[in-house]
């Protein structure tokens, strides 16, 4: 039924699905692995499915001259596609898929280069030096965050400094920002500095790791 719909409906044609290497996931008697024993005796069916599609960003961007059409920046690979028969609270068995997502950078060079200056400790305020590319759409809401090297999300910052409010010197695209010593973690460790662009809603520069 799904395969017929994919041939018929244009919006479904580009969706992919992994191989169905598990038993039909519907319809079970509750709290069991026995298919429907009621009077209706419904036929087992693969009603629980995972489909996916990668939007062709390369095709869109190539029209704007950003990068060649064949270089789609997003690649998705299905690692496994499984049903879970141990769950019995429904007449369906749940299905999960695990994917590998790879994203190519949209730019070859960072828009911001930044470095910590001097020794970083809780004994004194610290300085950050950064330089921005002319094409960076800067904003008063841009900030530089201090992150542990193991950070996974932009909200994982330990502390941050506003690039305008905390600026202490500027010479063209080369600027200095201070960060208060009271915000530096007393436990120390290995950290990174990241520049967050409010207009691009993204980190656009990351420093080399350094010790606090």
TrEMBL record:
One of its GO terms (molecular function) is phosphatidylinositol-4,5-bisphosphate 5-phosphatase activity. Transmembrane segments: none annotated. The lineage of its organism: Eukaryota, Metazoa, Chordata, Craniata, Vertebrata. Residues 112-212 form the SKICH domain. Residues 1-97 form the Inositol polyphosphate-related phosphatase domain. This is INP5K phosphatase. Belongs to the inositol 1,4,5-trisphosphate 5-phosphatase type II family. One of its GO terms (cellular component) is endoplasmic reticulum. InterPro entries: Endo/exonu/phosph_ase_sf, IP5, IPPc, SKICH. One of its GO terms (biological process) is negative regulation of insulin receptor signaling pathway.
């Amino acid at each position: 039924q799904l395969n017929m719909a994919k041939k018929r409906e244009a919006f479904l044609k580009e969706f992919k699905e992994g191989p169905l290497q598990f038993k039909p996931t519907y319809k079970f008697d509750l709290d069991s692995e026995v298919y429907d024993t009621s009077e209706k005796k419904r036929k087992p069916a693969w009603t629980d499915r995972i489909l996916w599609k990668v939007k062709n960003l390369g095709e869109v961007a190539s029209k704007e001259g950003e990068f060649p059409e064949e270089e789609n920046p997003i690649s998705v690979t299905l690692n496994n596609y499984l049903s879970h028969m141990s769950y019995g609270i429904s007449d369906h068995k749940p299905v999960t898929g695990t994917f590998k997502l790879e994203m190519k950078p949209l730019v070859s060079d960072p828009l911001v280069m930044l470095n910590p200056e001097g020794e970083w400790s809780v004994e004194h305020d610290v300085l950050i030096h950064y330089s921005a590319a002319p094409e960076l759409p800067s904003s008063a809401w841009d900030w530089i965050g201090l992150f542990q090297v193991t950070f996974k999300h932009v909200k994982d910052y330990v502390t941050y400094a506003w690039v305008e409010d905390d600026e202490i010197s500027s010479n063209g695209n080369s600027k200095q920002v201070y960060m208060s010593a009271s915000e530096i973690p007393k436990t120390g460790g290995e950290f990174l500095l990241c520049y967050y662009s409010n207009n691009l809603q993204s980190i656009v520069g990351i420093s080399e790791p350094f010790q606090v």
